[in-house]
């Protein structure tokens, strides 16, 4: 039986993974397919190791290029948290927690499993091969550091998602490919390897990346801070996060929220950005299509624009819980078009309804057909066409009428590092330090600085406002022991804790007492679902005694 690192079989792994290898020019990760890349070249030459480590970025990037399930696989994590309305489409099956409940209906879980084990196995091969390749020590250390970062990140991601994982530092070979794996790796061993890899990377990476998009010391320290938080090692989390914050020559928050996702995002705030470039590398994705509503269709006087986030279909939009968090301070810029869009305007003079004015908000028109608190058909239309959407994935030069877009993907950024530091200081009893770090994020968004005692809820609320739909919320809720509670109370749309079926029951149909909508996750969530089920297709590749997660 195959082991858990043999998701890409040996022969395929040596050839198919590297058939579209990347090589790096002076400032960009460029794709150079060639028939000359062989296993012997990749694992036995300095140039091959360089190509091999850059290929890790390509594998990571490929996950966002997959248009299966309407391109929604990368945002399944967002669908499973407490901040969204999973209205429809493939992503709603995951957001409502209909899929992912059993080993037999968790195919996208398998995509995550295979992706990160694939990166783990290729990282192992490169790290092992580097031991025998003669090349300058500094360059070898750089390559190995990047490979160890990818290995640490892959193991950590698998552990956070699936808990019961098997980890090895040996690459898959013909000699070990048929080994039977019957036991998971102990948690202590998992953390030991992750921390050793990150310590090595931090020691050997500079603060300045060798090329745009490459991992540098800031990303490694950021990841090590998160690992420390999972281990309740508050001092280490503080040390690592504040080291990044203190490196102002390389890392600082951009001045305003409208600059965070502007352009290629390769700014001082960015710690790790996956690079996509039209006609050079990277294929279009459909993330924006899933996250923005279809505000212009069947709405006279409205057309798709760059400013309003282009065309979407409202499959996964902001729920009233995060909307209310963002509304707590009327000056919060994040909900005013930099991260999220809630006000869709009449902007098409050719179809403008009589009596309406260009530039006014569509939902404020009493005659507009889509009403959040109208009848059932009107409410359904509201969630398709007028609910607040996330525009973090829409490019400045995007064509607003198209379903697919090409834009870099933000994997890690400094605002989250500040929140790590705030939490670490809170747990260490340093309230002033927690306030300083938390308020750095708040005041950049033009919200009032907090005073008094900081709570973990303050940090969770700020994390929701700042990082929604960036794949970070689910992990934080799980780590802080809040995932089950917050999903049951807030997932989908409705009053906190309202478990009634969509559009049923006696309600005032007001902001204070709305009908529920797409809140199935509140009823489907179970305590054991803080660990993802291991798909049956992956268990079939393991030994007969390999443990499934409890509850499944």
Shape: globular
- Largest beta sheet, briefly? 2 strands, antiparallel
Q: What's the gyration radius in Å?
A: 24 Å
Biggest sheet strand order reads 1-2
Indicate the proportion of strand residues: under 5%
Query: Helix- and strand-based class?
Result: mainly alpha
If you had to describe this structure to a student in words, what would you say it looks like?
Helix content is 41%, strand content 5%. The strands form four sheets. Strands 1-2 form a two-stranded antiparallel ribbon. The longest helix is centred in the N-terminal third of the chain and has 26 residues, at 137-162. α11 (234-246) runs antiparallel to α15 (414-427). It is mainly alpha-helical and 552 residues long. The two termini are 22 Å apart. It has helices at residues 10-15, 39-44, 46-65, 68-71, 76-79, 89-95, 107-130, 137-162, 187-204, 217-230, 234-246, 287-291, 320-327, 376-385, 414-427, 431-444, 456-467, 473-479, 483-490, 520-524, 536-539; strands spanning 22-24, 29-31, 84-86, 270-274, 316-318, 340-341, 389-390, 409-413. Mean pLDDT is 93; it is low at 1-28 and 30-36.
Q: What's this, in brief?
A:
Helices cover 41% and strands 5% of the residues. By secondary structure, the chain is mainly alpha-helical.
